[in-house]
């Protein structure tokens, strides 16, 4: 897998998504069921009530026996991709990528995979002023629309309120929901949204983005931090605070993972310094269980 900064350097989201996903496409195992699709599978004896349009008349003329042509069709599902576009997603890692940059690559690659497997893909961008929603479509033309929306997305403000997010949970429709976020929230607003989506749509896959410099606290000396969402300023000596920060951060990560799993979400932590293979593997694994 190419490094995420290499994919980002292409400055071409469709090409980056294809590069990241193609290795998975080669080995994917498509789930199939018998139906009336276009790919022929086998014959079976005619039974009263069968659709006569599927009867093989040529074989009947040669053998004086009546057989129905069965075919295989690929199973598919609705994949709903959700992107947290609050201001904290502008945090930049040491490799030059912001969390938003990494999230774009992940979601674009998943959309490429899902579309190539015949899934209907929807995308919702969650911003404080409202939700930008691309309705689900199971067609190749959906990808350019989705790429365009991701490329135009900018992060800003706080995570949207429950009132703004209400349309996302208004309709009951089975789907695999994929939520990509750094999970910074004020009062469990993300947890409430995902719990409601789980109730109306089913499985929720949570991909928790963590920048490598957040984990290692790679800063040195006296430094000024600004909260990207509240604007609060904090000055400290990074070397003196590193050990305490790392302990607190690890405790927060553990508590966040435990809370997500306790609510029944499929939770996975991703580093913005890592290739996309873990994210795509978890997506395909979860997709397989939905079919």
Automatic annotation (TrEMBL):
One Pfam annotation reads: DUF58
Q: Which domain of life is it from?
A: Bacteria
What the entry lists under InterPro entries is as follows: DUF58, vWFA_dom_sf
Identify the residues that the record assigns to the DUF58 domain, covering every copy. Answer: 42-250
The protein, known as: DUF58 domain-containing protein
Organism, by scientific name, is Hymenobacter roseosalivarius DSM 11622
């Amino acid at each position: 897998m190419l490094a995420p900064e290499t994919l980002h350097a292409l400055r071409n989201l469709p090409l980056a998504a294809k590069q990241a996903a193609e290795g998975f496409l080669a080995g994917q195992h498509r789930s199939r069921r018998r139906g009336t699709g276009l790919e022929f599978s086998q014959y079976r004896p005619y039974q009263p009530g069968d659709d006569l349009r599927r009867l093989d008349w040529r074989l009947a003329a040669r053998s004086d026996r009546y057989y129905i042509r069965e075919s295989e069709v690929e199973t598919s599902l609705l994949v709903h991709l959700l992107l947290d576009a609050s201001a904290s997603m502008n945090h930049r890692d040491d490799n030059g990528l912001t969390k938003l940059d990494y999230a774009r690559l992940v979601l674009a690659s998943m959309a490429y995979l899902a579309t190539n497997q015949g899934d209907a893909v929807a995308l919702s961008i969650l911003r404080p002023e409202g939700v930008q929603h691309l309705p689900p479509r199971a067609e190749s033309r959906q990808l350019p629309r989705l790429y365009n929306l991701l490329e135009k997305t900018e992060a800003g403000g706080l995570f949207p309120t429950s009132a703004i997010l209400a349309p996302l949970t208004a309709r009951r429709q089975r789907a695999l929901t994929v939520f990509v976020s750094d999970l910074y929230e004020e009062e469990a607003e993300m947890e409430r949204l995902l719990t409601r989506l789980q109730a109306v749509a089913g499985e929720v896959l949570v991909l928790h983005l963590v920048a490598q410099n957040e984990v290692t606290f790679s800063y040195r000396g006296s430094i000024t931090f600004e909260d990207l969402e509240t604007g609060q300023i904090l000055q400290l000596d990074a070397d003196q605070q590193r050990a305490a920060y790392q302990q607190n951060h690890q405790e927060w990560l553990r508590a966040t993972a435990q809370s997500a799993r306790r609510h029944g979400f499929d939770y996975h932590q991703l580093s913005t310094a890592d290739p996309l293979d873990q994210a795509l593997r978890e997506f395909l694994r979860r997709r397989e269980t939905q079919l």
